[in-house]
TrEMBL record:
This is AP-1 complex subunit mu-1. InterPro entries: Adaptor_comp_med_subunit (IPR050431), AP2_Mu_C_sf (IPR036168), AP_mu_sigma_su (IPR022775), Clathrin_mu (IPR001392), Clathrin_mu_CS (IPR018240), Longin-like_dom_sf (IPR011012), MHD (IPR028565). The keyword Membrane applies. Residues 169-423 form the MHD domain. It is found in: Cytoplasmic vesicle, Clathrin-coated vesicle membrane. It comes from the Eukaryota. The keyword Nucleus does not apply. GO terms for biological process: intracellular protein transport; vesicle-mediated transport. It holds the Pfam family Clat_adaptor_s. Keywords: Cytoplasmic vesicle, Membrane, Protein transport, Transport. GO terms for cellular component: clathrin adaptor complex; clathrin-coated vesicle membrane. Belongs to the adaptor complexes medium subunit family.
Length: 438
């Protein structure tokens, strides 16, 4: 048994969409959902994603925008499968309606019921791939006089790809994208860091090709007793698209799959390793008698000179009542955003090893005590092409199709910021002056 019923509610608990798949739970049971949410909030603890009532009915829910997606089940249900289905439901709705919120649900209830009927049968997930669903459930599908025959993908073992796809030019584009989460102290020490990676693909291939992807996987080299030519990495929390043959990966670490057509994320991974900062920000803040505050921000690219960070954006928080801004920068442009209480320094291209300086001065019309614990950090945005901080590499990408055509694989590497923050230092008082006025 999986899900007995699925509901979509607004934030007040009003039912927008309801679908009873098994008929073993009264639909009025959903009325107990909001009281359970309220009770958990009053208890002061963290809200659990699974709640149960006195009748043994389980409420599994996730919040998306201004909506609750809720599944009701009896005991002995597979919670992981239900949560995965609710997540896929929001992804499919996003593909159809762009924005998944209360208004879009109300405007598209007919097609939502059709999607629910196709995506789940008697409480068990069925077709959840949006590319396949789009072939026979369109925005105007409720107007059709006769039902169309579902594509072969619905009944095939490969439910995420339709047979008979043809392209004049067969190509595969593979992007290895790594996001760096990093928290840096005012002295430049890394307090917390991790890498979140994803391999995204765009496939324009004819037929039903089989792809094999090889990475510089440390577990693979250790199992085979081989020594890698370069660096080998050990990935944590690896998650694959449903097209990957998991048994093959578990046996010999081969990533083998028949890809969906078009764009999709093949896999994601995490590396909880200690990193060095890619872009360091050294800040000096001087508070001049409570009437003026001055900033000096030194930004330095700590990666290799042959790499260049594009569209670097450094956001420096300032007091809410700051006014009369004055700026001086060695490169790029700087602007004051009073709605964010911050200055934004933009550098279009930041070459490795380079160092740039920003100086800013503000007037302070009111005297306030600066709460050090609540002072926001400096945030840094960037994108470094042709570079991965983990050292992950695509060793090979083999494409096999029975017709024997030649295909062109393209690989691109990108490192970008995730939650990349530098804590602000304590302001220097005017008696210990370190900067000259602008």
């Amino acid at each position: 048994m999986v899900a007995s019923a699925v509901f979509i509610l607004d934030l007040k608990g009003k039912v927008l969409i309801a679908r009873n798949f098994r008929g073993d739970i009264p639909m009025t049971t959903i009325e107990k959902f909001m009281p359970l949410i309220t009770d958990s909030e009053e208890d002061g603890g963290e809200q659990a994603p699974i709640m149960s009532d006195e009748n043994g009915i389980n409420y599994l829910y996730m919040k998306h925008s201004n909506l609750y997606f809720v599944a009701l089940t009896r005991k002995n249900s597979n919670a992981a499968t239900i949560f995965l289905f609710l997540q896929r439901l929001t992804e499919v709705f996003t593909e159809y309606f762009k924005e998944v919120e209360e208004e879009s649900i109300r405007d598209n209830f007919v097609i939502i019921y059709e999607l629910l009927d196709e995506m789940m049968d008697f409480g068990y997930p069925q077709t959840t791939e949006s590319k396949v669903l789009r072939e026979y459930i369109t925005q105007e599908s409720h107007k059709l006089e006769t039902s169309t025959r579902p594509p072969m993908a619905v009944t095939n073992a490969v439910s995420w790809r339709t047979e008979g796809i043809k392209y004049r030019k067969n190509e595969v584009f593979l992007d290895v994208i790594e996001s760096v989460n990093c928290l840096i102290s005012p002295q430049g020490n890394v307090l917390r860091s991790e890498i979140l990676g994803a391999i995204k693909m765009r496939c324009y291939l004819s037929g039903m090709p089989e792809l094999r992807l090889g990475l510089n996987d440390k577990v693979l080299f250790d199992a085979n007793g081989r020594t890698p030519r370069g660096k080998a990495i050990e990935m944590d929390d690896v998650k694959f698209h449903q097209c990957v043959r998991l048994s093959r990966f578990e046996n010999d670490r081969t990533i083998s799959f028949i890809p969906p057509d078009g764009d999709f994320e093949l896999m994601s991974y995490r590396l909880g390793t200690q990193l060095k900062p890619l872009i360091a920000c050294e800040a000096i803040v001087e508070n001049y008698s409570g009437t003026r505050i001055e900033y000096m921000i030194k930004a330095k690219a700590l990666f290799k000179r042959r790499s260049t960070a594009n569209n670097v954006e450094i956001t420096v928080p300032v007091p809410e009542d700051a006014d009369s801004p004055k700026f001086k920068v060695s490169v790029g442009s700087v602007s004051y955003h009073p709605e964010k209480s911050a200055i934004v320094w933009k550098v279009k291209q930041f070459q490795g090893g380079k160092e740039f300086l920003l100086r800013a001065e503000f007037g302070l019309p009111t005297v306030k005590n600066d709460d050090l614990d609540k002072r926001p950090p400096i945030s840094v945005k960037f994108e470094i092409p042709y570079f991965t901080i983990s050292g992950i590499q695509v060793r090979y990408l083999k494409i096999v199709e029975k017709s024997g055509y030649q295909a062109l694989p393209w690989v691109r590497y990108i490192t970008q910021n995730g939650d990349y923050h530098v804590r602000m230092p304590e302001p220097v008082k005017s008696g210990n002056r370190v900067m000259q006025p602008l």
